[in-house]
Amino acid sequence: MTHTLLALLQAGAYAEPVAARYDAATMGMFLLIIVIGIAGYVVQARLQSVFKKYSKVPFPGGLTGAEVAEKMLRDNNIHNVKVTHVNGHLTDHFNPQTMTVNLSDAVYASNSVAAAAVAAHECGHAVQHARGYAPLALRSQLVPVVQFASSAATWVIILGLVILATTQNELLCWIGVGMIALSAVFSLVTLPVEYNASNRAMEWLESSRTMQGAQLVQARQALSWAARTYLVAALSAVASVLYYVFLILGRRD
Predict the structure, then answer these.
(1) Angle formed by the axes of helices 24-54 and 113-131, to 10°?
(2) What is the pLDDT of residue 3?
(3) Pairing verdict, β 82-85 and 93-95
C-alpha cells in the first residue's frame, strides 16, 4: 500500500514530459537496482545450494553444530554465552542482549561441514563481543535507531513528496532520505562484522584442528557465499539512497 502511494506521489511530483522525468541518471539508477536485485537472487540461490550440498558432507570429528559452538567458546575462554536452538532455516545468530548463540534446525543437531561452519561463524560474533570489537558494538547501538527509521521513512517521504509538489519545500524529503541512509549505514557497518566473524571462525577451525583439508575448504566456501549476501544487501541499501537523492534533485531541476 505504501509503495503504491509513493509511486502515485512520484508521478504527481513529475508533471514534466517523459524525456525530462527519466534522464540518464534516473534510468541508470533503475538499471543498477535491477542488476543488484538479480545479483541478490543469484547469491541467495547459490548460498542455499552450497549449504544444502555441504549439509550432506559429514563432519570428520562427528561433532554437532552445538558441540562445535561450545568447543569454540571454551577455547576462547568465553563461559557466559549459552548455545541454544531456534526454529527456522539459516536463522542462526548471536544475541548480545541475552548472551546466546542461537542455532537453527539445520545446524544445532547436525554433524555436517555446513553446520560446523555456521556454528563457528556465530561464535565468531561472541568472540567479537568478548574482545570489544568496535564495529559490532556500533551495529548493536544502531539497531533500535534503524528499526524506527526504516519503519517511518516511507511515510516521511510520502508526506515530503506531497509538500514538494505543492510548495517546492524539499526539507521533509531530505529527512526521509536521511532515515533511509541510516539503513545503508547499518548495512555497511554489518560488512566488517560478518567478514571478521567468518575469519575468526576459519582461523579457529584450522588452528584447533577441528577441521582440516577438504572440509576446511568447503567450510570457507560456505561462509564466503553467506558473506556475499551481506555485500549485496549493502549495495542495495546504497542504491536505494541514491535513487531517492536523484528523485529529489530531478524534481528540483
Answers:
(1) 120
(2) 46
(3) unpaired
Helix/strand/coil (H, E, C) string of the chain?
CHHHHHHHHHHHHCCCCHHHHCCHHHHHHHHHHHHHHHHHHHHHHHHHHHHHHHCCCECCCCCCHHHHHHHHHHHCCCCCCEEEECCCCCCCEEECCCCEEEECHHHHCCCEHHHHHHHHHHHHHHHHHHHCCHHHHHHHHHHHHHHHHHHHHHHHHHHHHHHHHHHCCCHHHHHHHHHHHHHHHHHHHHHHHHHHHHHHHHHHHHHCCCCCHHHHHHHHHHHHHHHHHHHHHHHHHHHHHHHHHHHHHHHHC
Residues assigned a catalytic role: 122
Is 19 exposed, middle or buried, given 0-12, 13-18 or 19+ CB atoms closer than 10 A? exposed
Residue partners of 52: CB distance under 8 A and separation at least 6: none
Which pLDDT belongs to residue 5?
A: 41
Q: Cell match 575448504: residue? A: 217
Across the chain, which has 253 residues, the per-10-residue mean pLDDT values are: 44 43 64 83 86 85 91 96 92 93 93 93 97 95 91 86 81 90 94 96 93 89 90 88 80 59
How many C-beta atoms surround the C-beta of residue 16 within 10 A? Answer: 12
Distances (CA, A) of 248 to 20, 177, 186: 13, 9, 23
Joined grid coordinates for residue 28: 541508470
Grid coordinates belonging to 207: 588452528
